[in-house]
Specification:
Helices cover about 45% and strands about 10% of the residues. The chain is an alpha/beta fold.
Length: about 350
């Protein structure tokens, strides 16, 4: 439409009825205005990414798994709608509570936290987690996972792959973890800041006993760039901002600015965030701003930002995709990481 003309679609008079589907609701959103419209357009763009065969990266900031949204992620992995993931360590760590049946309860954000501390309850907004029955029990599990593992330099994709395998083999409810599903479907799960999580804290006991851990973070960022380099089209679904968001988007500058490929940048990006863009923080940085860094191919299309709570918007977007597209065959990117890395290395060495 002409942004300065009066040729846009008519705004409908939205009516609800008991027989409406999630598709009907998203269509109503997309035909309306404000962030409802943005959510509708984001859901449609995500579906288009799936239909076009784009390689899709899911980024997750904060702690979304304690409210159960790991199950939504698992549903998308199982249908081939997520090909690789970048997340916080918190989401990987807390996800394993569900696989092990460790208690996570609804609470309230109005509680007295000093009293909660005395009662050995940890609070994440209005979610309660037991200090000993959940966190300490989980710590012991993670410590067992990695007591005899990661003796060679590793990436966080290898770290999470090992964790998924161990949980799948030993947890009583292995079907309740997106990390386990990622292992089964060959979906790499990268943790953008491993040391900023309980996952790294649990390695401390082994380090004090003399075991060393060597994270090959440069190999990791090259693998991520190689995934984009080996994809005909690629896109990101960003839940929140922060380091996971930038880790996915910096694949463009690595390919173009550093490796001089002139072919980096995502074809599509959807961002769900409640952060403001005017403070200069990365979580609120607009996708259009990312074009100036070469993080996206086109600053005028293929992007939607939804200013909303992820816990509200993400399940709607995911359900719309699940309702409107048959499952795709998993790309099993984890199994091809060496191949992608070698291709990028060979092409760069040939051209340098």
């Amino acid at each position: 439409m002409d942004p300065h003309g009066f040729d846009g679609r008519d705004i409908p008079y939205v009516r609800l009825d008991p027989d409406m589907t999630i598709s009907d609701l998203v269509e109503a959103y997309a035909a309306s205005g404000y962030n409802g419209r943005s959510l509708g357009e984001a859901a449609k763009l995500y579906l288009e990414m799936i239909r076009s065969g784009a390689t899709i990266c899911l980024t997750m900031s904060g702690a979304l798994s304690p409210v159960g949204l790991g199950g939504v992620v698992r549903s998308l992995i199982e249908r081939g709608f997520v090909d690789w993931i970048i997340t916080t360590g918190a989401n990987v760590y807390h996800e394993d509570h569900f696989a092990w049946g460790l208690p996570v309860k609804q609470g309230t954000h109005t509680a007295d936290d000093t009293t909660l501390f005395r009662n050995e309850i940890v609070r994440i907004r209005d979610v309660y987690i037991r200090f000993y029955d959940t966190l300490e029990a989980q710590d012991q599990v993670v410590q067992r996972y990695f007591e005899d593992a990661m003796s060679e330099p590793f990436t966080t994709a290898e770290f999470c792959h090992h964790m998924g395998r161990m949980s799948l083999e030993s947890a009583p409810h292995p079907e309740r973890s997106f990390v386990n599903s990622a292992y089964e479907h060959g979906v790499p799960v990268y943790v953008s800041t491993l040391k900023d999580s309980s996952l790294a804290l649990d390695l401390a006991v082994h380090r004090l006993r003399g075991k060393t851990y060597s994270l090959d973070f440069v190999r990791e960022i090259l693998e991520q760039a190689a995934i984009v380099y080996s994809s005909e089209t690629s896109g990101i679904l960003e839940l929140g901002g922060g380091v996971p968001k930038n880790t996915a988007q910096q694949t463009g500058p690595l390919l173009d600015q550093i490796l001089r490929r002139s072919d980096g940048g995502q074809d599509h990006i959807i961002q769900i965030t409640d952060a403001r863009p005017d403070t200069g923080g990365l979580s609120g940085a607009t996708l259009q701003e990312g074009k100036s860094w070469g993080k996206i191919q086109d600053a005028r299309r293929g992007m939607v930002t939804v200013y909303a709570d992820t816990t509200i918007a993400f399940p709607i977007l995911a359900m719309y995709a699940i309702s409107n597209h048959a499952p795709r065959t998993s790309r099993r990117i984890y199994d091809h990481l060496q191949e992608y890395y070698d291709r990028l290395k060979s092409d760069w060495l040939r051209g340098s």
